[in-house]
Write a structure and sequence with these properties.
The complex is a heterodimer of chains A (about 210) and B (about 180). Chain A contains 6 helices and 9 strands; from the N terminus they run ααβββαβαβαββββα. Chain A has about 210 residues and is of the alpha+beta class. Chain A starts with a helix and ends with a helix. In chain A, about 30% of the residues are buried. Chain B has helices spanning about 1-15, 15-25, 25-50, 55-60, 65-75, 80-90, 90-115, 120-140, 150-180. The relative contact order of chain B is 0.13. Classes of the chains: A alpha+beta (about 210), B mainly alpha (about 180). The interface of A and B includes residues 32 and 35 of A.
Chain lengths: ~210, ~180
């Protein structure tokens, strides 16, 4: 009889232990992939956009502080990409269209940053830009020529880029929103266009309300 | 004793930094070679541990059910995509993998298996086959990258190996239904 009760006790201990390790390792059953965990952590940490020099499709060079005072909607891409990036950019275009026009360029700028500066020259970006009806002004495409600056930015924003054998990259994708002070405030699922557009519009409306 | 020595040698070998780098460079090798080997290492340690602590196992794992539950929990735990990334990113999680798989999965599996009734063994086969089937579906069908450290092509490859392993287990399970009388 005593043997059985130890057995039962041991089953209970094991089940509790199992529950606990699952609970702790998935942030309370919320983050089963490193990507969800990363997004969660980023939003809590709110990193500052590092000071980088951008070179855009119009061959203009400026630092990120060019956008200070405006929200910046950021994505990370490379133009040779055939799977995720076109989808990411198409979705970005749809978000762009859904944002009320009075805010575009005034309170918010869209920015696609290439992490493949070698191949993504201003000419390439200029061509790529036209595929998505980006005007090159309120939605810019730019590369970061300086490698260490680029690496620093990718690390800060948790973008993991792995080159594969055929000259492509595997990378995680999301919509990033940087506030007028250069702080990352939102990381959004790039597949949920409507949700992202609503969220950004709400933030912009709030900001506009504060101004008045 | 001999088994424990073999186990120990493989254990040390698996811990060598270059071996870790190679065994984690590819998703399939990480999940289907490194992790099972760690479980096997635990199984090799089992006779020695049983010899040293005979009472402990008799008392706490009398009918093998607690042990097999622990095994299944640890097995399922290391199937979470996030754990593979974390094991690469964090040395603590890596250490936890090297401890939990041999001692909380390998040891209880071997310790419990003989104590289990044929019926429970069948449940275990089906559970693992279904789990692998689910994993196969997850890794093959997922439209997004599940592990930030691995390419999508590797993810798909992992899915197919899961399917293969799951199918093998299932075939073995079917086969036990027919040979049961001979056991």
């Amino acid at each position: 009889m005593k043997k059985i009760s130890y057995n039962l006790l041991s089953i209970i201990i094991i089940l509790v232990f199992g529950f606990l390790i699952f609970f702790v390792s998935t942030d309370g059953f919320q983050a089963f992939t490193a990507e969800t965990a990363r997004t969660k952590e980023l939003i809590e940490k709110k990193p500052q956009f590092p000071n980088v020099t951008l070179e855009d499709s119009k061959e203009r060079e400026y630092s990120f502080s060019e956008f200070s005072g405006k929200y910046v909607f950021v994505t990370f891409i490379y133009t040779a990409c055939t799977d995720v990036c076109p989808e990411l950019e198409l979705n970005m275009a749809q978000v762009y269209e859904r944002i009320p026009e009075q805010y575009i360029g005034e309170d918010i700028v869209f920015l696609s940053i290439s992490f493949d500066p070698e191949r993504d020259t201003p000419e390439t970006l200029e061509k790529y830009r036209s595929y998505f009806n980006s005007d090159g002004e309120t939605w810019r495409m730019a590369r970061i020529p300086d490698e260490s600056e680029l690496k620093n930015l990718l690390d800060e924003f948790g973008v993991v880029v792995i080159p594969d054998d055929s000259g492509n990259f595997t990378h995680n994708s999301a919509f990033y929103l940087v506030d007028p002070q250069g702080t990352l405030v939102e990381v959004m699922d790039y597949k949920k266009i409507e949700e992202a557009a609503n969220k950004v519009t709400a933030i912009l409306e709030k900001k506009a309300g504060e101004k008045e | 004793m001999k088994q424990a020595i073999y186990g120990f040698v493989i254990y040390i070998f698996m811990m060598l930094p270059p071996v870790i780098v190679i065994s984690e460079s590819n998703m399939v090798i990480h999940m289907h070679m490194q992790m099972p080997l760690l479980i096997v290492i635990g199984m090799l340690f089992t006779p020695l541990l049983k010899q040293k602590f005979p009472r402990f196992f008799e008392k706490w794992n009398a009918n093998g059910i607690p042990g097999i539950i622990l095994f299944l929990i640890i097995l399922s735990y290391w199937m979470i995509p996030r754990m593979m990334d974390e094991a690469i990113a964090s040395p603590f999680v890596e250490a936890w993998k090297f401890i939990s798989l041999p001692f909380l999965a390998g040891v209880p599996l071997r310790e419990s298996w003989r104590k289990l009734t044929p019926f429970v063994k069948k449940i275990v086969y089906v559970f693992i086959a279904v789990l692998f089937g689910l994993m196969a579906w997850l890794y093959i069908a997922a439209p997004v990258q599940l592990c930030n450290n691995y390419l999508i092509s590797q993810q798909k490859a992992l899915g197919w190996t899961f399917l293969f392993m799951g199918l093998c287990l299932f075939i073995y399970f079917i086969h036990t239904l027919f040979i049961e009388d001979y056991e």
